[in-house]
Amino acid sequence: MEWLIWVGAVISAIGLLGLVWCITTVARAKKAGLEDTVMRDVLKRVLPRNLAALFLSVIGLMMVILGISFG
Q1: How far apart are the first and last CA of the chain?
Q2: The CA-based dihedral angle spanning residues 28, 31, 35, 40, taken in that order and rounded to the nearest 10 degrees
Q3: Can you give the pLDDT at residue 8?
Q4: Is 21 within 8 Å of 63 (Cβ atoms)?
Q5: Which tens digit of pLDDT belongs to each residue from 42-57?
Q6: Under a CB-based contact definition with an 8 Å cutoff, are residues 65 and 10 in contact?
């Protein structure tokens, strides 16, 4: 079950990179001082990607835990 640990770690790392991307995107938009409507548009685009990245991180961590438990 060692492969499950490594695959889960890779998936979790991809999710973590996605979360970092979301944070930097919103921070840049906030720093740019955009209008309210433009900022809302940026947040509407980032939100689904943020949730997907969080989902990947959670699934990856669950795979790691399962790999440790079964191994």
Answers
A1: 5
A2: 40
A3: 97
A4: no
A5: 999 999 999 999 999 9
A6: no
Q: Report which of 5, 49, 4 is spatially closest to residue 26, judged by C-alpha positions.
A: 49
- In this prediction, residues 23-31 reach a mean pLDDT of 96
69: left (phi over 0), alpha (psi -120 to 50) or beta: alpha
Please, where are the H alpha helices in 2-35? Answer: 2-32
Inter-residue contact 26 to 42 (CB < 8 Å): yes
Helix axes 36-70, 2-32, angle to 10 degrees: 170
Among 11, 13, 46, which Cα is nearest to 28's? 46
Question: What is the tally of structural domains in the chain?
Answer: 1
Residue type at 71 in one-letter notation: G
The model carries a pTM of 0.88
